[in-house]
Each structure stands twice: as structure tokens, then as C-alpha cells.
Amino acid sequence: MLFECTEKGYSAFHEDLAVYTTGKDLLELKANSLEALSLYFEEQAIEIKESQIELVFHLDAFFKRYRALNANFLAEKIGMHATLLSQYIQGTKIPSAKQLAKIQEGIHSLGKELQEVNLI
How far is C-alpha 83 from the chain's CA centre? Predict the structure, then answer.
């Protein structure tokens, strides 16, 4: 399901199905997405599992939401030219699946790295 930020949290929708939901945070959004999809498929007796729910964020929306993430820093970390990453973020160029995976891997790596940080 695609998700985006709202003034009060997040909203999600499925591109191919009439399924929409909201949540105050990503955990609630995922739980509500599971419930919405389960209700949608209830008559067909199709069981939806949490592991099947994938929340997808558009690249430009991600960087608008997480402005604290420095695109130049990320570009350097993943070995990409900062101008190219900026063009992807602004939507003037569309990243290939390989480039998108490289960006996503860099973001996930940075997140894992930040989880290990303790401050004094």
C-alpha cells in the first residue's frame, strides 16, 4: 500500500483496490492497513497476514517528510553523485530499480547505524 504523510499522521491506499486507511504513526497505519485489506477480502475468504503488508513511500515524499536526512550525506554514503540523487528526489529524473534499491539500502543502513548510537 502506498502511504503519505498528513497533518495528523499518515494515510495509506492501495493503487488497484478500493482500500484506504489512516493512522497516527506507521505502526498504527500498518495495523489499520491489515484490517482494511482483511475486510476487503472477507467475502472471498482470503486471509491477509501482516507479513503481506508492505507500506511504500514515494522517494520525493520520503525526503520531504524526513528533511533531517541530508541527501548529500546519503549520496556520499551510497557512492552516488549528489546531483543525481537530488534529481531523483525532485522528480526530474526517475531512478531505475537498481538505483532505487541502492538508495533504499543506504537509508536502511543509516537507520541501523543510528539505532546503535547512544548519547551522553
Answer: 22
Max Cα separation, the chain? 54
Global pTM exceeds 0.90 = no
The position carrying cell 547505524 is 113
Place of cell 502506498: 2
Q: Which domains does the chain have, with CATH numbers?
A: 2-52 (no CATH), 59-115 (1.10.260)
- With cell 475486510, the residue in question is 39
Main-chain phi, psi angles of 29, to 5 degrees:
-60, -40
45-87 pLDDT tens trace: 999 998 998 888 889 888 888 888 999 999 999 999 999 999 9
Helix (H, G, I), strand (E, B) or coil at 97: helix
Question: How far is 94 from 6, CA to CA, in rounded Å?
Answer: 24
Cβ-contact 57, 3 below 8 angstroms: yes
